């Protein structure tokens, strides 16, 4: 029998501020997820993504995702796959941008003794 049971873990429309306004918190899991909120005019500078594929779902607002192949318009309902290590930058539109980011859990860093 599973140790965890299905349950509501948050509200994707809650939280203000800039950056991660919600994070998946159950300790034992193989999935990671967070809600990112960027106020109007805010953004995330160009960077290489993690060693994991990422799926984002735009909850509300609008914006632009800049990639190596050009710009992608983001609007509510958009589902975007970000391949591992792909270059990306986000810019929020006039009403801000809120999206859910989902990917496999990153391995925990640890100290290895020999």
UniProtKB/TrEMBL annotation:
InterPro entries to which the protein is assigned, alphabetical: AraC-bd, RmlC-like_jellyroll, RmlC_Cupin_sf
Domain AraC-type arabinose-binding/dimerisation span(s) in chain numbering: 54-108
UniProt keyword terms in alphabetical order: DNA-binding
Region spans: Disordered: 1-21
A Pfam family annotated for this UniProt entry: AraC_binding
Matching SUPFAM superfamilies: RmlC-like cupins (SSF51182)
Descriptive protein name: AraC-type arabinose-binding/dimerisation domain-containing protein
Tagged with keyword Lipid biosynthesis: no
Organism expressing this protein natively: Microbacterium nanhaiense
Range of residues in the leader sequence: none
